[in-house]
């Protein structure tokens, strides 16, 4: 420290004070301004989402953008869930928190400014040269420290925070994609259950009509009592199946309401049909899209980069830490700390300097920390490679399921046509008294089974398509490539 003595000329004293205050104000101004981002700033994640996803787009402020009691097709249901579902809200908050962490890490590049103010009172007044001094002492200090070299620790920490922000943004994309698949799966299950209700009602209507015909034949003595009983038993079974189908349909509606954050008992109208959507991509095209767009693949890549930054952070302890500092202090016997009776002029002092610290030996602490970080990096690289193999399997599996469902739709469509014709023939033969009631009931059961098979094949095809798009990392609210 270099105290300013009272013996100095007043002009010299004022110049020194003015110089100290100028340096202090310049450093404080530099700390307050935004620090220019280094080359790592280019790694700042963009708000947009990969693969056509709008994960970084802010959600609409109003939750009433759609009428809550209106109709929902698949696209509107997915968009509503992505806007209102709390799981997505949580993931979005995690991304925003990571962005604030990146900004915090960026602040470490600038100078750190600290200040302190103190007051001391002695139990009795001191004396100097037979003069009684004041027993109150006020002190104000200001310190500025600027890191100059930290073994790349600050830069690596900032780059790691930027990568973490990107990873959280991709996690948000993955949450949105997973939720979209859940909504589409529930929506298709709702449509399927609706078709099953319609089929069950048609079956019940056919059985009731057959029961009426059978009873009419029985009343005129053309059919035995057994035929009537068999027809009534089948009607009862059909009524039970209809109740089960209607309950399943209501359950699927409640599930959709939950995903869309609607009241669970809301009588929401979900509209749509099980119409297959064309898909003509090859396995190679699907894999190329998956490796490029899937959030979890990109998250794994970010994890590898973050592990690399951790290695550099751990190795930074092997290098000296260099910083510059500036300190200024003033004291006095009044609250403004501007001198005392003894020192009416030389009450402030300042110093500046450089500081280098180097931990030369810590029994291998820094070395083994670096080795640990390298092993973690190897681990995440292996996990990334394994994930890519799993992605290839998932895409292939979804594509095979889609192909299988497409073929089964063709078979089920043909089977339904045959079952309808068989039922018409059986009814006609029964009414012409050349067929039996058992033939009609058997044909009716096969017709109902054929309708269920076609409905199931269509629903499974669309569900496989939904999961195939998700396996490629692409958000398709209406299952169309557009």
UniProtKB/TrEMBL annotation:
Protein species of origin: Nitratidesulfovibrio vulgaris (strain DSM 19637 / Miyazaki F) (Desulfovibrio vulgaris)
Pfam families linked to this entry: OEP (PF02321)
Example GO molecular function: porin activity
Compositional bias ranges of the Basic and acidic residues kind: 93-103
CC annotations in GO: cell outer membrane; efflux pump complex
Protein name: Outer membrane efflux protein
Keywords for this protein: Cell outer membrane, Membrane, Signal, Transmembrane, Transmembrane beta strand, Transport
Similarity comment: family membership: Belongs to the outer membrane factor (OMF) (TC 1.B.17) family.
Residue numbers spanned by region Disordered: 84-109
UniProt xrefs under PANTHER family: OUTER MEMBRANE PROTEIN TOLC
Record's subcellular location: Cell outer membrane
